[in-house]
Amino acid sequence: MLALWAVSLVSTPARAARDLLQLFVSQPYLELHTGPGRGYPVTQVVARGESVDVLFRRTDWFKVRTERGVEGWASARELTLTTMADGVQFHVNEGDRAGFASHRWESGVFAGAYAGATLIAAYSALSVTDNLKIEVGVSQFTGNVSDGYLADIGLAHVIMPEWRFSPLVDIGTGFLRVQPKATLVKPVDRNDEIGYVGIGARYYLTRRFFVRGDFRKYVVFTKTNANEVNEEWRLGFAFFY
Amino acid sequence: METRIRLLLLSIAVAACSGCASMHWPWHHPKSDAASASASTEDVDAAPPSVIEPQVERRKIKVPKIRAKNVELGAYYGELSIQDFGAQPVAGLRFDYHISEDLFAEVTYGRAKGGRTSFEELSGRVQLLSDAERRFTYYNLSLGYNFLPGEVFVGRNLAMTSALYMIGGIGNVTFAGSHNFAVNFGAGFRVLPTDWLALHIDVQDLVFKSNDIGVYQLKNNLQATIGATVFF
Q1: Looking at the complex, does the CB of residue B213 fall below 8 Å from at least one CB of chain A?
Q2: ipTM attached to this prediction
Q3: Neighbours of A100 (CB within 10 A)
Q4: B197-210 and B178-192 strand pairing
Q5: Where are the alpha helices (DSSP H) in A58-104?
Q6: Cβ count within 10 A of residue A39
Q7: Residues A108 and A201 reside in one and the same domain
Q8: Is residue B47 pLDDT above 80, yes or no?
Q9: CATH code of A33's domain
Q10: N or C: which end of chain A has fewer CB within 10 A?
Q11: Residue B130 touches chain A, beta carbons under 8 Å
Q12: Is B28 left (phi over 0), alpha (psi -120 to 50) or beta?
């Protein structure tokens, strides 16, 4: 029994090693750097036919362990020249134009202006189809007379998702909270429902990233007789996953 | 040779099976003549059945997933010099996402408490702000650039990867009872004693326009912190 336990203890690291991806060097050699960056010196090379276990990834660099137990960093570009155990070439998914056209989730941050106040916003979107997305966003704006928050949910229609520069239209609803600056006479916070329509565009940059810009018109359903109409523009970075 | 034997055995098996089906076993009740007649005509029209169905089950190879450790999560502590309100301790949380070896995105949230202005100190009992209004909270959305990556050597046997980075972004500062759009910029140094732990030294300036003393002023709030983060 004790012997069995001892054997299981010994075999654990071996089993753990098998949970790691094993890659076989099929190019003349694989260079291992001392750190995850192009400038770090190469102190080890792995010869053709030998294998490495991939421990984890940081950006475009992979920490690997050789058969001799030496650890080092290999670049994604070099690792795509290696093969997996079944002989298939190793592939690193870094995002591409196809992913930009068709993906499940996207998120981003913006800076802009809402009714003349400076705006910071963040959003996430779930793709129902490549064209249609459900979007949820939060924004904070700070102006000279009032500050506030916006929370919205809506639908966005990307007109040509496969184009690098793809326009979109969106429509939605949400809540607005306005906090007048304390220096004003009657600082009463206000909560109102809002509705919006907007147009925008997305431009694919590289890998998983794109730029997005929006122009929206908000209707604030105030508790007074007249509704307010406010304009918003925003520009920011987003990524898909 | 082996395949020939297999083929031979297989054809024998197929022949035996079809032979068995055609035999009239005592427990087998034949269907009515009309039904069997129509079935037989259908059989003639239908395509001839294939003798051997290729049922090759592909071996499923599970490719182990590679863990991506691009996210840093941690906290920092230091000193924040709030313009007009003295240098005060500041503490915060930080979240970093490493986009590439050069670029990273950062979200920070910090809080401090403003002290007393020189005017308040000299005049004695005057209070410009209430206790709640002295609370200084901020968040920043920043982009960082590792412009001097390198290694740090401790003694003869220990080398740690490091980077000197520049960082800048936008955010919001809540102070003196109002929210203010803020711009932050600075530089920092990151060193990784292990693959999962990073230590930071940061100096940043939080700049915003405020009218907390009646006139709009550009406020510079310098912050120096040390922190630790864990890579996920």
Answers
A1: no
A2: 0.82
A3: 25
A4: antiparallel
A5: 76-79, 97-101
A6: 12
A7: yes
A8: no
A9: 2.30.30.40
A10: N
A11: no
A12: beta
Task: Pick the closest to residue B193 from B156, B149, B228, B142 (CA basis).
Answer: B228
Going from the first residue of chain A to its last (241 residues), give the mean pLDDT of each consecutive group of 10, the final group possibly shorter. 47 55 94 94 94 94 95 94 90 87 94 94 96 96 89 96 95 93 66 96 92 96 88 95 88
Q: Which of A59, A150, A209 to mutate to test the interface with B (most CBs of B within 10 A)?
A: A59
Same domain membership, residue A11 and residue A65? yes
Domain annotation covers residue B101: yes
Total beta-carbon pairs less than 8 A apart between chain A and chain B: 77
pLDDT tens, B163-211? 999 999 999 999 988 889 999 999 999 999 999 999 999 999 999 988 7
Whether chain B has a CB inside 8 Å of the CB on A181: the answer is yes
- The answer to whether residue B209 sits within a structural domain is yes
Closest CB from B98, B151, B195 relative to A34: B151
Q: Which of A79, A112, A139 is the last residue of a domain?
A: A79
pLDDT tens digits for B152-165?
Answer: 999 999 999 999 99
As for how many domains chain B has, the answer is 1
Mean of per-residue pLDDT scores for chain B: 83
The range of the structural domain enclosing residue A206 comes to 98-240
- DSSP string across B68-95: B--EEEEEEEEEEEETTTEEEEEEEEEE
B148 domain residue, yes or no: yes
- A183 interfaces chain B, CB cutoff of 8 Å: yes
Contact A182 B100 (CB under 8 A): no
Q: Is A126 on the interface with B (CB under 8 A)?
A: no
> Is residue A91 a part of any domain in this protein?
no
**How many domains does the structure of chain A reveal?**
2
**Contact between chains at A35 and B63 (C-beta distance less than 8 A):** no
